[in-house]
Inverse folding.
C-alpha cells in the first residue's frame, strides 16, 4: 500500500470509529423539558391531519365518525385529502397542515388520519417555535412516530403514541383515550388487553425477556422509524428512558439488523427499561423469504436485548393491533418486566 492510499484508508477508518460516539455525545448533551398540553374535554374540536400517507374521502368520513362518536367536534386540515404519489400532498403541504393545526385557536387537539410514510421528509418544515407556544394533544402511531420524535425533541411538548383517526375505537381504546387524554389522574395502571389471538398467534405472547423493573420517561414508537432518525437532530437521548417499541411486517433478520444498529449507534444500554408491544406479522415465513432454520422473533429479541442487563418485556398492548395503549412522550412511567405491566406515574396533560 502506498503512502497516499494508507493515509486515505486510515482517515476513513478513524471517521468510521468516531461517528457513533459523536452522535451519542451530541444527543446526550440536549436535555428536554417536557411541556404537558391541556387535557381534552367532551365538545372540544379535534383537527384531522394527514402528515404521511394519503386517505380517501370514505376514510376521512370514518375518522370523523369515530371522533364525533366520542363527543368531539372535528375539523379537517386544508390539505387532508391531497395526494402526491404515495404521500398526502407535498412535503410543504403536509407540514403546513401540522403548523395550521397548532396555530388554529379553535383547535384543541390533533389526530392523524393514518400512518404510511413521509414524515421524515417534512420535519424541517415544521414551525417548532409555534408548536412550543401552543401545546396541544397530538396522537398517532406507525409513521407518526417521526412526528412525535420531531416535536418532542425540538420543543418538549408531550405528544402521544396512540390511535389514528381510522383506528378501531373499541371499549379498550376508548378507555385509554379517556384516561390518558381527558383526565389528569395519576397513577394510571395500563392493563393489557385480552386479544382474541393471544392463544393462537405467537405474535401476541407476553414474555419477560429480562427480569426487573425500571422507572423513567417514556419515548419510542415504531422501530423502523426510530432507527431512521438515529444521527439526526431529531433523535432522543435514551439515558434513563423507558423505550417502547413496536413493529409490523418485518422478518426476524430485519429486526436483528435494526436492533444491532441501535446498539451500535445509540446509548440504548442506558435505558431504564424496554417495553415491547406486539411485533405483528414479524415471524419468518420460510416459503416467502427462502430462509430456512431462521431465528424466531423471540430468539432475536432475547439475543439482542437480554445482554443489555435492563428490564425488558414483550407483548404489551400497543402497536399495529386493535387494542392500543396511549403512550405519552416525556412522562414518567414504571415497567415491571416480570408482570409485563406498565404504570404512568404522573398525568400526561394539565
Amino acid at each position: 500500500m502506498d503512502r497516499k492510499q494508507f493515509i486515505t484508508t486510515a482517515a476513513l477508518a478513524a471517521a468510521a470509529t468516531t461517528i457513533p460516539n459523536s452522535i451519542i455525545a451530541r444527543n446526550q448533551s440536549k436535555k428536554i423539558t417536557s411541556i404537558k398540553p391541556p387535557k381534552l374535554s367532551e365538545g372540544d374540536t379535534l383537527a384531522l391531519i394527514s402528515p404521511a400517507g394519503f386517505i380517501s374521502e370514505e376514510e376521512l368520513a370514518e375518522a370523523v365518525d369515530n371522533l364525533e362518536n366520542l363527543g368531539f367536534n372535528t375539523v379537517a386540515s386544508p390539505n387532508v385529502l391531497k395526494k402526491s404519489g404515495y404521500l398526502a400532498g407535498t412535503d410543504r403541504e403536509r407540514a403546513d397542515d401540522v403548523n395550521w393545526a397548532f396555530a388554529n385557536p379553535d383547535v384543541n387537539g390533533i389526530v392523524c388520519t393514518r400512518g404510511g410514510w413521509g414524515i421524515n421528509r417534512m420535519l424541517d418544515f415544521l414551525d417548532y417555535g409555534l408548536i412550543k407556544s401552543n401545546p396541544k394533544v397530538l396522537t398517532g402511531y406507525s409513521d407518526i412516530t417521526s412526528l412525535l420524535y420531531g416535536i418532542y425533541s425540538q420543543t418538549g411538548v408531550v405528544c402521544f403514541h396512540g390511535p389514528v383517526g381510522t383506528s378501531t375505537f373499541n371499549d379498550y381504546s376508548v378507555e385509554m383515550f379517556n384516561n390518558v387524554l381527558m383526565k389528569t389522574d395519576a397513577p394510571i395502571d395500563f392493563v393489557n388487553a385480552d386479544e382474541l389471538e393471544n392463544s393462537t398467534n405467537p405474535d401476541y405472547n407476553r414474555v419477560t425477556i429480562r427480569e426487573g423493573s425500571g422507572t423513567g420517561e417514556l419515548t419510542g414508537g415504531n422501530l423502523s422509524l426510530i432507527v431512521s432518525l438515529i444521527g439526526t437532530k431529531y433523535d432522543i437521548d435514551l439515558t434513563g428512558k423507558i423505550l417502547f417499541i413496536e413493529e409490523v411486517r418485518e422478518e426476524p433478520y430485519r429486526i436483528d439488523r435494526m436492533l444491532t444498529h441501535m446498539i451500535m449507534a445509540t446509548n440504548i444500554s442506558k435505558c431504564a427499561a424496554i417495553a415491547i408491544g406486539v411485533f405483528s406479522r414479524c415471524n419468518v415465513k420460510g416459503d416467502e423469504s427462502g430462509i430456512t432454520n431462521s431465528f424466531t422473533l423471540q430468539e432475536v429479541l432475547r439475543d439482542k436485548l437480554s445482554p443489555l442487563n435492563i428490564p425488558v418485556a414483550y407483548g404489551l398492548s400497543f402497536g399495529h393491533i386493535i387494542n392500543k395503549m396511549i403512550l405519552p412522550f416525556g412522562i414518567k412511567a414504571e415497567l415491571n418486566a416480570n408482570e409485563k405491566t406498565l404504570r404512568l406515574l404522573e398525568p400526561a396533560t394539565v
About this structure: The chain has two domains: 45-181, 188-344. The domain at 45-181 is CATH 3.40.50.10740 (Rossmann fold). The first strand starts at residue 45 and ends at 49. Residues 3-20, 22-27 have pLDDT under 50 and may be disordered.
